[in-house]
Design a protein that fits this description.
This protein has two domains: about 60 residues, no CATH class; about 240 residues, 3-Layer(aba) Sandwich (Rossmann fold). Helix content is about 40%, strand content about 10%. Strand 2 and strand 3 form a beta hairpin. It contains twelve helices and seven strands. It is globular.
Length: about 300
């Protein structure tokens, strides 16, 4: 069952929309003496202001807000393969662009833009590897656009980083054997956060939990991994690792205080519940176009709350 949510509330959760903007507008009018001056001007006690005595005060529009998005192929917008012979397509638009549009439509007069630096197949290790240049490129892009907010979702590839033919031969499908350990993930994320804050001028980092994924259908991409027992064992280990990463995210939020904030925590459960419509049926990893729309709405609500 699907429940459509917009900014201000979401699936089954009480995300109360506080009329902050309306309250701010009232306070602004009171503070400026707006009451009794319909044109927005103020009159001091005992004055005899008449129409035309003061010209309307021009107000500059709020500065646009650029948000840097760091992640893997899901942030990038990959739709995954629909069969073994067809290259992956891209969502149009990807979730970050949809998030920017949703936030712009929320009515606070600000324009939001997305800097999408999602990198297919990347892990937290990729993002801390200077030789790959992923983080350096993201920092340059953030500085060029004047971004002060960053959103990060990483972990889907970390959770099966070391799965290979050697794993099949060894028969060890434990999380310790196939996934980047939780503490290493946490250290990598900390390094990314610190670089963004120190080198890119990012003031607020928002960390979202990973979305649900499945392994079983993925074995069709490589005949080496056709055993259902292998797939089931790998699935259990991947989910175990991803739960650990979500714990690491919570710990980082607590560690940094207000500089790092919790993003979305609902996508995992919702994508598991709606996997038939929201995940590519061939790889069960990448969202469908519908899935990206749902993910964008979840991210937008979380970012709006965090900001």
């Amino acid at each position: 069952m699907r429940t459509r949510r917009f900014l201000g509330w979401n699936h089954g959760a009480a995300f109360a929309a506080v009329p902050v903007l309306a309250l701010a507008a009232v306070l602004a009018l009171v503070g400026c003496g707006g009451a009794g001056a319909p044109d927005g001007s103020s009159a001091s006690a005992g004055s005899s202001a008449t129409a035309g005595d003061s010209a309307p005060v021009a107000t500059e529009p709020p500065a646009p807000v650029a948000i840097l998005f760091i992640g893997d192929s899901i942030t990038h917008g990959s739709l995954g393969q629909k069969d073994a012979d067809t290259p992956p397509g891209l969502a149009d638009p990807a979730a970050p662009a949809q998030v920017a549009a949703l936030l712009t439509e929320q009515g606070d007069s600000r324009t939001y833009t997305a800097i999408n630096r999602g990198a297919d197949g990347s892990t937290t290790m990729s993002w801390t590897d200077e030789a790959q240049g992923l983080l350096a490129g993201a920092i340059d892009a953030a500085k060029a656009e004047g971004a002060t907010v960053a959103h990060i979702m990483l972990g889907a590839n970390d959770a099966r980083k070391y799965f290979s033919g050697a794993t099949v031969e060894s028969g060890d499908y434990s999380a310790a054997a196939v996934a980047i350990p939780k503490e290493e993930y946490k250290n990598n994320m900390r390094a990314i956060i610190d670089r963004l804050r120190n080198d890119a001028g990012i003031e607020t980092v928002i960390l979202s939990n990973t979305i649900y994924r499945e392994i079983a259908p993925e074995v069709r991409l490589d005949p080496t991994y056709t055993s259902e027992d292998q797939a089931a064992a790998l699935q259990a280990s991947v989910l175990e690792a991803m739960r650990g990463y979500d714990e690491a995210v919570s710990e980082l939020v607590a560690e940094y205080g207000g500089a790092v904030r919790q993003g979305d925590t609902q996508a995992f459960a919702l994508f598991e519940q709606n996997k038939g419509a929201w995940l590519n049926p061939f790889d069960m990893v990448h969202p469908t176009e519908e899935g990206y729309r749902e993910l964008a709405a979840l991210w937008a609500a979380a970012i709006q709350g965090a900001m």
